[in-house]
Amino acid sequence: MHNTLRRGWRGDINIYEVLPECRPGVEMVSEPRISGRERLVLTSIIESYIATGEPVGSQTLARQFGNQEGMSAATIRNTMAALGEAGLLDQPHTSAGRVPTAQAFRFYVEQLAGAPKSLTRERREQIDESFAGVGSSQQFLERTSHVLALVSSGVGVALASAREAQTLEHIHFSRLSAGRVLAVVVTTSGTVQDRVLLLDRDMPVGELEASARFLNENFHAWSIDRIRAELDRRLIEERTEYDRLARAVKELYRKGALEGDSASGQVIFVEGVANLLSGEMDRERLRVMLTALEAKQRLIELLNAYVDARQRMVRVVVGLEDAAPGMENLVLIGSPANMGTVAVIGPTRIQYEETINAVAYIAQLSDRLLQD
C-alpha cells in the first residue's frame, strides 16, 4: 500500500494511508505499533541513512546516543531486530547494518506531520529570486522543474493543466469559399487545432487577415478559456460601438474559431534526471527507472493519477512500482497548482521535510503569479 501526505496551505498536515489506486475516500490504514524506544531508533536510522546512503549499524547508533540511559549497544541491537521483524528494516548483507524499508519511510513521513516546519528564510528567498522575471504560465512551469531539481537533488517535474496547455501561440484564417472559413489555432504547447467555420455572411480575405492580426496581437500567450471570457466581456460591454473589425471577430468567435479541444496534450517539463545517476542502484534497475522517467506520457499519467487537482495539498507517495517497473525505490512529492501540477520524483532517501515544504511553497507562488 502507498502512503500519502496531505499538507494544507497554512501548515496543517493530515496523514492518510491509501490503496495503490489512490481512490478518494478509501479505508485508512493505521501506522505500525512501535514503542517509544523503537521509534527513536528507527528515526535515527532513517535520518542517518538519508544523510549517508550507507547501512546503519548498532555501534553507529550507540555513538550517536552516547551515555543516554537504556540505549546500550546490546539494547539497540535487540531493538533493531524487533524493527526488522516488523518489516521496517532490511539487512542487505549478513555483516552489514540495517536500511529502512519503504514502510519505514512512510512511517517517518507521518512523524514529520506531527511537527511541521516551514522553509527557512534563506530557502524562500532563493526560490523567490529564481522566479524573478517570470511573466507567463509556461515560463513558470519551466522554471519550476529547474528549481525543484536544484532544491531536492531529485527530478523536478511541472505539468501544465489541460486548460493551460491550450494557450494561444498563433491563429490564422483562410477563406475556403463563400461563407466557409478554415480556422487554424496553434497553441504554445505545439498542438495545432483546425476547424471549418460556417459563417452567416461571406468574409473577404482582408477581414480575415485583420481579425487574425487583432487576436494574435492582443491575446498571444493567453489561455483559450481566458480569451473567450474576455471577448464575451467586450462584446457585452461595447455592443454597437464595435466597428467592422470587431463585428468580424465576433462572427468568427461565435462560429467556433476558439473552441477548446479536450484532446490537446498536456505539456510537461522535466529536469534533473541526472541527479539520480549517483544513487546506489545497480545498472539494470537504473536503466529501467530512467526509461520510465523518460516516457513523458507515463509521467503525465502518474501525476494525474496521484495528485488530485481538486485538493490543494501536498501528496507524498513512497514506492511507485504500481506506476512502472523499476520505480519501487522512488518517491513522488507533488501538489496541484493553479497552472497544473508541481512535483519532485526522487530516491526514497530524499530530504523529505525540505522537499515537501518547497513543493508547497512553489505551488503557492503560482497563485501569486496568476493574481499579478
Report on the architecture of this protein:
The protein contains 13 helices and 12 strands. It has 372 residues and is α+β, with helices and mostly antiparallel strands. It folds into 3 domains: 22-114, Arc Repressor Mutant, subunit A; 121-161 and 266-371, Beta-Lactamase, CATH 3.30.450.40; 166-254, 2-Layer Sandwich (Enolase-like, domain 1). Residues 1-30 have low confidence and may be disordered.
Whole-number radius of gyration?
26 Å
How would you state the average pLDDT, rounded? Answer: 79
Number of domains: 3
| Uncertain spans | 1-30
Shape: elongated
Strand content: 15-25%
The CATH superfamily title of the largest domain:
GAF domain
Oligomer: single chain
- Using the coordinates above, name the CATH class of the largest domain: Alpha Beta
> What share of the residues lie within helices?
40-55%
Question: What is the third-level CATH name, the topology of the largest domain?
Answer: Beta-Lactamase
Please give the structural blueprint:
Elements (H helix, E strand, L loop, with lengths): L1 E6 L5 E6 L17 H17 L5 H8 L7 H13 L3 E2 L8 E2 L1 H13 L6 H10 L6 H16 L2 E6 L1 H4 L2 E10 L2 E8 L4 E7 L6 H15 L4 H15 L5 H11 L13 E4 L11 H12 L1 H11 L8 E4 L11 E8 L2 E8 L4 H20 L1
Antiparallel strand pairs: 1-2, 3-4, 5-9, 5-12, 6-7, 7-8, 10-11, 11-12
Helix pairs in contact: 1-3, 2-3, 5-13, 6-13, 8-10
